Amino acid sequence: MSNQRVSMHGMWSSRTVFVMATIGSAVGLGNIWKFPYITGQYGGGAFVVVYLLCIALIGIPIMMAEILLGRRGRASPISTMGRLAREEGSSPAWSLVGYSGVVAGFLILSFYSVIAGWALAYVFQTAGGALNGVTGESAARLFGDLTGSPVQLMIWHSVFMLMTTMVVARGVRQGLERAVSVLMPVLFVMLLVMVGYAVVEGDFARGFAFLFEADFSRVFQLCTGPAATPECRFTGEPVLVAMGHAFFTLSLGMGAIMAYGAYVPEHASITGATITIAVADTAVALLAGLAIFPIVFASGLEPAAGPGLIFQTLPIAFGNMPGGQWFGTMFFVLLVFAAWSSSISIAEPAVAWLVDTRNWRRAPAAWLVGALAWLLGIASVLSFNIWSGEEYQVFGKTFFELKDFLASNVMLPLGGLLIALFVGYGAARHMALEELAISRQRLFDAWWLVIRYVSPIGIAIVFLNSVGVF
Ligand code: PHE
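Above: the input record for the complex with phenylalanine. Below: its predicted structure, written as tokens.
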């Protein structure tokens, strides 16, 4: 047997519970809110192809690496990296991967909670009938009223952060995970119904073509302005964003999956679990795209509308379909649950670290992490109103955009690169061999090749390209 450690933070009761929890972490706002809006901004099909390639060639192999490290170390990501580096005779500096993950986690949580707050607000708006009969214009106005009000955003941001902290503090994954394992399939079915609505009422052909017809000349172009008369410039940014999103959507590169991997039972197959998680995550994102873009085009909206995209398009569907008030309310409730089961995993690495190295109890650790992320979140709240102007921007980005860019497009891929390098070079081959326990040698060899060469070189090329080296 490869190792007999158990985690002091508890263990998942079975492989299925681990897979459900990790799907809960992966499927969230990234799939339903972020994927459609960045796909709209970065031009559709070609962006989607790059994103899918990144999932397959970089995301899946690195997810396997993160889980195997987590299970081997059985501690918080910072402690796990330190412990394994010591055991493998590598430099203690590898634990920096864990620290950078904690920082990235704070950055992500501090805007994730604000966007989840929008979903919370929409639960009540939809239930109260505010969406009934809305048009593209009134839906946009409704959204503008919400984001224009710092007070409302602060309230919902605070509510969501409290929800997250409460669950993390109790350390009960069971409660939420059990709920999520019922709610996620329901969300999936509801997305299918939404796609059905888009087929009937939306411009499905155009939405489908936008998502899946790849115009590769646009992979290195970023266009702004109205779709009819766009202004385009040459840049590596879309590829960087597609790669960053592959990390974000699979919760990779910051230790969330490593932390969850620490609680995996010894004999679970890491490869099988990873494929299930990645397929589920990708399916939800593509369905969300198929539900949204047909409505975008049928209603004459801009695909490049930005972070408000789903909050301006889905209400049109809910406001005009039979039973939409009820259905829409359900949808936003489920979106909140999807976000909730992700946000607890974003906080986990920091909390587990305070517990296993500083001897904190779980509850105060969770409250401290929640409070800090909440404070940092104020900058995200203000980014949509008081601080939206250019005088408050850094490098032409609001605080919200800056935190998202730094975490998703820089820190997560960098974390992933280091994880691949540690597994591929910093540790002995037999460590991975034992943990993965892949019976077919060829399959292991293929993964080994990818983790040592394909993923790291891929990430490096995208980075170098985006800073203009070539
Ligand atoms: N994967 C989550 C989503 O798509 C976000 C997340 C990022 C969760 C990083 C954990 C770590 O919504």
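Notes for the reader.
The radius of gyration is 21 Å.
Residues 25-26, 28-31, 108, 248-249, 251, 254, 256, 342, 345-346 surround phenylalanine (CB under 6 Å).
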